[in-house]
Amino acid sequence: MKNAVSGDVLASKALARAQAAVGLSDLPVSPEQVFPGLGSALTAIEGQKAASPAAPSPAVGRKTNASESSVSHIGKVFFTLGGVNYVCSGNSVTSANQSTVSTAGHCLNEGPGAFASNFTFVPAYLDGAAPYGKWTAKALYTTSQWSSNGNIQYDTGFAVMNTLNGQKLSDVVGASGVQFNAERGLAYKSFGYPAASPFTGESLKSCSGTAANDPNNPQYNTQGIPCNMTGGSSGGPWFIGTSSSGYQNSVNSYGYGSNSSNMYGPYWGKVIQGTYQTASTAP
């Protein structure tokens, strides 16, 4: 777990496949520009030459993230794809099966491509400790738009967890309510475990702000808030309001480079709602 690679690299690969399919000029932003800290990750994983990202601005860092105490239902996500171990963030959400975790689509499926194995959720992770145990998944779900085409507009997934010591996840750590088809431009607080520099991935961070549409790629239909969390924070929950007790309404999906001052998340509309309903009622 300590050596797991940020799952953001998988979203980068998905965008690269999309570029190859439609032509580089048709996508205005390259994968390395979109996902922070990917240059070094790609070098390590694929042995390809990639430029190291510029150091994050200290001024940006002070304004767009905050340290948080651990929250019982928010945790780190670990998984394996293509023989590589990755790390993301996730959240326990209310569900009929009492065992559903939300995360980014690229944290459980290559987009397009294979689903992950060894998917494990560690709620309230802190400095290597797992105070509520390590929960393994028995089923993974994402939108068909992500699993078939890597469409960043639908970059959300849900994992159904096995019981642990005879107990269900939400009975142990609690669960967040969810909301879909909400008004745009709401105030949010997002959480995650950013692992790329200047963060370590060992503790929970947050970002807060009023959501605004992505001006660079409006076709994604995403919204962004002020945030400089890096790779590893992918899949962390967005809550409506100012605390982790609000309704979850998105996840951390992407930002524009290592000096980015905004984090973008998918709009949770009817498509993502359908995926949630399938996962949350699965046995």
Give a structural overview.
- The chain has helices at 8-22, 31-34, 38-46, 58-64, 144-149, 169-173, 270-280, and strands at 5-6, 66-67, 74-81, 84-93, 100-103, 117-123, 135-142, 157-161, 187-192, 205-210, 212-213, 223-226, 237-240, 248-251, 262-265.
- With 283 residues, it is α+β, with helices and mostly antiparallel strands.
- It has one domain (1-283): Thrombin, subunit H (Beta Barrel), CATH 2.40.10.10.
- A 6-stranded antiparallel beta barrel has the order 3-4-5-8-7-6.
- Strand 3 and strand 4 (84-93) form a beta hairpin.
- The radius of gyration is 17 Å and the shape is globular.
- It starts with a strand and ends with a helix.
- The model is unreliable at 18-63 (pLDDT under 50).
What tags apply to this protein structure?
V8-like Glu-specific endopeptidase, 15 strands, 6-stranded antiparallel β-barrel, 5-stranded antiparallel beta sheet, 283 residues, alpha+beta, single chain, 20% helix, Glutamyl_endopeptidase, signal
